[in-house]
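quick one, 337 residues, struct below
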Amino acid sequence: MSEETFNSQELYEHYRFVADTGQRPLRIDKFLMNLVENTTRNKIQNAAKAGNILVNEQPVKQNYKVKPGDIISVVLTYPPQKIELIPENLPLNIIHEDDDILVVNKEAGMVVHPGYANYTGTLLNALLHHFEKNNEEEQPHLVHRIDKDTSGLLLVAKNELAQSRLAKQFFEHTIERKYQALVWGDFKEDSGTIKGNLDRHPKDRRVMTVFPDSSKGKEATTHFRVLQRFTYVTLVECKLETGRTHQIRAHMKYIKHPLFNDAAYGGDEILKGTTFSKYKQFVKNCFKIIPRQALHAKSLGFNHPTTNKKMFFDSELPEDMTQVLEKWRNYAVHKLQ
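---
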C-alpha cells in the first residue's frame, strides 16, 4: 500500500492511496477507515455523497468494493475542533442564511476560530450562540478562513455534508473570491498574475514567504487588477485562484507592494512618497484611521451545496478603509493640481 498525504487548503486535506496487488474486495468506507487517522465513518460517507471520493479518477459511492491496483483519492474536511466551543453573545453581521450555509461579513479584529491565546471571543463562539438561539443542534463548520485583521465575507457550512461539498469546490478552485487591498507604490501595468509557492518563513514562523523556483511550500496564484491610483499607494482588486495562509499579503510583499499598514509584512512604514514632514504626518494619520492591513474580502461566489444554484455575495468596504481611501483620493487630487 503506497500512501501520499498532503494539505491542500487550510481546512481540508487530500489523500491518495494505491491498493495493493493482493487487496481483497472491501467496501471503500471501511478501506478508508483503516487508513485515515482521526476520521469517522460519517465523515467518509459524507465525502462519498459529495463526490469527494474518486477511484481511478471517477467518483464512487460508499459501498464501492476496492480492487487490487485501484488508485483512490479523497478530499476530507479536517476533524472537529479539539477545543470545546463556548457560545458567546457577540455581534454578527449575517448577510445570508439557509438550512445549509451562512455568509458572514466579519469585522476586522475578530479571530475566526479558537486557538492559542484566542480561546474566546471568536467568530465560531458567536456562531454557536446564534445556532443555539435558533434551536439548531448542528455546530458551525468552517470551509475557509480570513485573517483576524482582515474584514469581509466568510462562508460557513451548517452541516458536515454541506461542508464536504463546499470543500470540494475550494479544492477544485471553483470558488470565486475577490478582495480589495490598498498597497504601497504604483503599478506599471493595469493587471497581472503573481505565482509563487508559499510556506512559513524559515526565521519567523508567524509570516509566510514566497519560494519562486522551488518545490518547497504550496502552490499559490493571485490575479490582481488596478482599481485606483493615488500616486504613492494603489487600490487593487485581488482574485484568489488558491487560498493559502496570508496569500495576498505575502504575494504583494513579494512584488514589492506590501499592504498599507501591514505590520507583519513591512507595510506599516512609509515606503513611498516625499520627505516632507506634512506628508509623513498625513501617512501617520492614515495609519491611525486603519490600524491594520488594508484588506477586505469583498465578494464571494459559489454553487449552493444542496441546490447547486449559483450564489454571489458582495459587500461594502468597511468605514476605516473608506476613510483612508478618501484621504488618499484628496491627497492625489491636490498633489496633481
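The chain has seven helices and 19 strands.
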